[in-house]
Amino acid sequence: MKKILGIVLGCLLFSGVAWAHDGEYQGVHFVKPQDGAVVSSDVDVVMAVRGMGIHKAGDLVQGTGHFHIIVDGGFVPEGEVVAKDITHIHFGKGQVEATLKLPKGKHRLTLQLADGHHVSYGKAWSQTIQITVQ
Ligand SMILES: [Cu+2]
Predict the structure, then answer these.
(1) Each residue of 88-101: pLDDT tens digit?
(2) In terms of pTM, does the model score above 0.70?
């Protein structure tokens, strides 16, 4: 039984998706663009979270955070501060929509939730998608 539980937990961790006790999905995801989308160079992004609140950066409020998009990178491990550079975009005002200008080609976008001090909530609070910019 323990082994089966371990496998199930492992699968949930691997998929980057967590489930609350009531069976409600929790985590973050791109509402837009969708995984595999082919888009123009002004990429409209809509971000969503379930199971945590959105709050502006600077204040440390338990159970809340703000979004980050990492371009052509990956999730930031739990407890690590999200870098601030051209490939790590912070939405510190609590934005849930943005327009990104990306060069043509295939790109990997990672949505990452982190706390008010930009400390990552880890893989369980991230989603990575692939898009193609035309
Ligand atoms: Cu941040």
Answers:
(1) 999 999 999 999 99
(2) yes
Nearest to 27 by CA among 55, 61, 51: 51
What CATH number has the domain bearing residue 41? 2.60.40.10
Residues around ion ligand 1, judged by CB within 5 A, are: 90, 118
The answer to whether 77 and 125 have CB atoms below 8 angstroms apart is: no
pLDDT digits (tens, 9 = 90+) for 119-129: 999 999 999 99
Q: Which domain holds residue 80?
A: 2-133
* Under 8 Å between Cβ of 47 and 97: yes
Q: What is the Å distance from ligand 1's center to 92 Cα? A: 6
Query: What number of CA atoms fall less than 13 Å from residue 73's CA on the CB side?
Result: 20
Total domains in the chain come to 1
Output the CA 14–ligand 1 centroid distance in Å.
Answer: 24
- For the purposes of burial, counting CB atoms within 10 Å of the CB of 51, is it exposed (0-12), middle (13-18) or buried (19 or more)? middle
**Sequential DSSP letters for 58-88:** TS--TTEEEEEEEETS-PPPTTPBPP-BTTE
